[in-house]
Amino acid sequence: MNTSFRIDRRAFLKGLGGVSLALPILDAMGADVTDKIPRRFCAIYTANGMSLPQAGHKIDEWSWFPRAENKGEFVFGKSTEPLAPFRKQLSFLGGLYHPSGPKSDPHVCSDMWLTGAPLHNPKPGTYNSVGLDQVVALHTKQFCRQPSLVLSIDAGTGFLSRTGTISYSLEGRPIPAENNPRRIFDRLFRGDRASLKAERDKLKQRIKLVDAVAQNARALHRRLGKSDRERMDQYLTSLDEVEARLIASERWIDVPLKKQDYSHLNLNATNEGEPAEFYRNMFDLIALAFDADITRSVAFMLNREDGMGISDTFPLKLGLSRTHHNLSHATDKNGQMEFAKYDLFLSKQLAHFFDRLTRYKDRDGSVLDNTIVLFGSGASTTHNSRNLPTLIAGGSAMGLQHGTYWRNGETRMSNVYLSILRSLGIEKDSFADSTGTLSKSIFRRV
Amino acid sequence: MSMSPVRSLLTEMRGRLGMYFVLSGVVLLLATAVRAAEKPMPLEMGFDLHVRPFLKQYCVRCHNADKMKSGVRVDRLQAALEDPQLRLWENLRKQIGEAAMPPEDTTQPTIAQRKQAVEWIDRALQEARLRPVPKNGSVRRLTVAQYRNTLRELLLLDEDLTEVLPPDAISRDGFANNKETLQLSPLLLEAYLDIADKALQRCIVDPKSKPPIQNFRMDLGAGINAHPCPDSLILGADSLLLNNADFEVTQPKLAKPFDFNPFVMRTKYRFIEGYRGNDTVRGWRDFDSIYHAVYACMRGSHGYPKGRAYETVPQGLLLRPAIPSAEIFGVDSTYGPRANFKIAVRELPDHGRFRVTVTAARYNDGLLLDPGTAPQTGDGANVLVCRDNNMPLTINLERAGIYQVDVHTSQKNKPTELTLSLGDRQFTNALKQPAFLAVRLPAGPLDVNARCTGGVSLDRVVFTPLAESHETARQFAAFEKRSPLLGVYMGFRRDCGSTLAPVGAAQSVSSDNLARYVFEGSLRNFPNPDVEKDNVNYLAGIREIGVRSEYTDGRDRPRLRIRSVEFEGPYYESWPPPSHRNIFLDADPKDDPIAHGRKIVRAFAARAYRRPITQEEEDMLTTAFKNALARGDSFQESVREALQVVLASPQFLFLIENSRTPEAEPLDDYELASKLSYFLWNGPPDERTMKLAEAGSLRKSLDAEVDRMIDHPKFARFTAEFASQWLALDKFQVLEPDRKRFPKLTRHARAHLRQEPVRFLQHLMQKNLPARTLIESDFVMANEVTADYYERVGKTESGLEFVPIEHGRSDLGGLLSQAAILAGLSDGREANPVKRGAWLARKIIDEPPDDPPPNVPTLKEDTRMLSLRQRLERHRSQPGCAQCHAKIDPWGVPFEQYDAGGRFKVKPPDARSTLPDKTEVVGVADLKRYLANDRLDQVAFSVLRHLTTYAIGRSLTYREREELKKERTKWKAKGYRMKDAIRIVVHSPIFLEK
Hints:
The complex is a heterodimer of chains A (446) and B (994). Chain A has 446 residues and is α/β, with parallel strands linked by helices. Chain A is built from 13 helices and 13 strands.
């Protein structure tokens, strides 16, 4: 531990009153922030599964999972065709499932999607466990303004077992989602004075606390005599790091936002209007937030399980004959075709998002290359919690190798999640019920 | 010996030893020279002469940096035996001494070479053991459990805020409290800061405010509600509601010794999403009734083996034991147990303590007779036959006693359900035979009513008094002695069932008269639906309070009668609550805020740091308080800031034993107080121990303190922690048994079986029983659930309480045949003798097998067709596996008598095994006998070693292991009793010195 550095910095901070920080400190504090290219994660969820038509209907080309091959490459089905331009930046993954999935009530599959928790047998006093996006947030929050962005078609949390959010905190509690483009924009890009002040006050308070704790700890450290100092050193180093993170967060308040073009946004879009317009604006906001490094972890629930919420009616708005949940239950040819047409609609929105992420550039490539996008559902078709439809895009700068339809029998979703964490440079040993990483799949650096 | 090794050896010696070799040439001469000097050769020299060349020639080829066969590498070994290498050296000594290495098919050393090497190693080991290890105190982080307990006792706060903390790592010895594995990270520290912030917010209130308190009461009984809710209530899929007239909800006025704001529950609601059966319907609808905010519900699994799961009678709601459902989709009903009474509530406080009071009684019940019970003949003294079908009617019984009631119908084979009323008691069951009920009846007039469903008409009802010796009478006598067990649950409604957690332990309801049973908890410790405030869905965010008669093993048990259920929360006995007064003491801050603040901070920090604080600490903390005050924060707010510093301090988060010199120093009294209480209570010392420390008399009263701590309820924390870590019970916790093969290993049974080793150990400790009981005992610690798992061991009427029961069987007793251990060491499908063997070697006899080498080769042949014995033999004969497995498998083979669920097999296979010391044992009973007699010293050492390691929170050094061997002999002299083991540990220098 570099004590003299600490003391100098503290003195320096005090001298400046913490109002504005000189650049050398920013560099020392935030080497991680400035030197490293951001690594990001985005989870996008769609409820009720995808259309996987029965073979007898002879409409295989409408299957969401590719069912044909050409010259060793998979062929995009009609419902995923809009994604074809991104073939080299995405992969389909088959055979994935959560072992706890089939044991739990199928309506809770969205609650489990990012967590893998045994919802049929929760730990006493809990319901769920932490989700992948929040683990990412925990490890990236010190580098950006917001630990994470939790978005959904409906605001809030909904209610358990028919939740309106896919994001669960460290304690396994649902994190309320935001759904209004204007409010999201105002909060992220137009921080108002009152909330900035409140945030700054909170951070200052915390910094003061950490400061007092550190003083007290150092006094103890001096008194410890010959005692085992290893743990105390670890404590002081950790405290340094906590303080550094706080100061970095405080610093963000003053750092001007990256200059961006917002002219394409339509902030009047809401979930009650045109569905495509709503999704387009939500995706544009995510792309802008990534580009400005406002956050590195995003979870977005496109629609909810079991016909909950407004999005259930979107197929009707698009001229299809049944609601989303009803279409997902369809076994007749026409119903399965219509369900696929809704998949097609979602693919178009996704293609738009990928296109945005490709246009924004980091220093070493596109934002998409530095973002792992996970798109999928907690059921393959309604109430079937095996072979979860999963598409992973982006992240080629993190060793992801795309362009395939990968499957290897049945594979735990948690192993995919652990692989995602490792690709992001988060060296966890396990995630939920993972048994290892998928080193021989699309992940090359796990 | 061939020539070339000699030559190379000599070259080596010349190079290394220089001057010693003026005589040069022959090894023999040198040996003579050394002997002549009458002083043992310095270790370094011996190493260079005998050992290094030996290793180089025979070992390094396979055990080097690149190859590391079996994970062993000897090329770096030096003459100075470093502590971490002692085990390796011991192992080398064994391999060389027993001629196990080098492998048979390679060049072998001469006997003399072996002897020299072994002698040197023995000497060097001896010296290393005696070498003093510097003692530099210790700084050990609290484990998550210790931190939770400490925070709760310091702040008097029940709410568990530690959910965010990641679980502690497990050390090589299997313990979570090892100071090496208890790391600290920035994330953890951030979590500590957040928890401190939250905890203090919860504790500190505004004493002048009036707290809001919510309360309601539900009364239950057939037709009890004169003004039932006219709406039909809906609970979504599979809703089973009580008749609206059978329950009544009120918000009675509470009497409290302080001013408060009664929280009036909201009754007006507007929802757009509602339900018709299982279908969601849309459209705004207004609701205005307390019955849409609180309602009674029986939503659970359908049916009951005998009688009805529940019934409402005018005196209340009758519940039979709640038969658990696996609640796994596709396997079993997910809706919960059979007889699953719940109160659904729309609003509950967000946090704070709560109290649920159930007014209940044991129902003066009759025993529904089992299928196959013969009807009485209908004649004899005092038999009363009613042929009058004009029910109800009144009969007159000559004498009081146990009667069998037989009901004969006119249409024998027509399915029907009979409801029989005797006085104000009611019994309902499907009537498939005349023999219906055994019941105790008073003498005199008795109103009788009997109604059959399905248009079946009665022929006659026969009352036959039974002699006490009659089988049915004896069954009834046992039945009427039993009491229902009342359990209360808290959680929330799910679409497909509920997520509920028990509120404390079940309580036995033994009186036929109504009594009040109180259950308390902290709201946030229970599953919470976290619904948003502006929810528009009728079924969203519904909390549930479950009330059950607990199930044990399906034996007949009088029904539980619930008369009312009351809720109060947040529950305060006084205002401001103790958590607040505990911090702010009683003085008035107005006199001198600074002095008062200083006093508060000093008192709090001393409790948090578990010792008086230093002047420097006091000044620093007071400064934090004063700064906040100077900034304009309120007195309370300023105190809070200083306390937050305390709760994030290393003095609070760490157990510190401060050492001044590298020599061993005695612990000071405060350090000793903490060491004792974190050992025996897994939490902070209490006032009494602290007083002894303060008076400097803790050491003198050590034995008395230890006894007091062992007898205290908090000692259960020790047994729970120690047993689960020592015996690796976590493996059982996460077991996923094959339901088809082990239908009895339900979640319910597992939760109780998991307790068995813990309760067993606690019993041994508290009763100071001999350590051999760990291996062989003529009793098991069981409750009705676990006794049932072992096929009704002995007779227990203990309900859910664990009591010692004599089993009189050869397959039970001791730790080694407990299901939590044996099943935990399987994969839920097949038993695993290798895991069981390794567990026994590691945990029970302290002969830990070596870690498997990296890149374990798979067996070369396909062994699927072979028997287990043959497979293990293959295993042992394969080079690379053989070394370790010869020390593991023989211990595991006897356990083949037990299946993967931990029960003795119906047809136990051949379980002969030749142990590593060539002793032959046949099966587990024989193995136990052998361990409890021939190997008892070793078992005792293992107990002592694990106990000491846990007590001091770190692995033992080699020297300490040797010291412990002496402690073991002391213990042996006292008869190897379990409580004595704790006393031995606590008195040993390993524990008392830092």
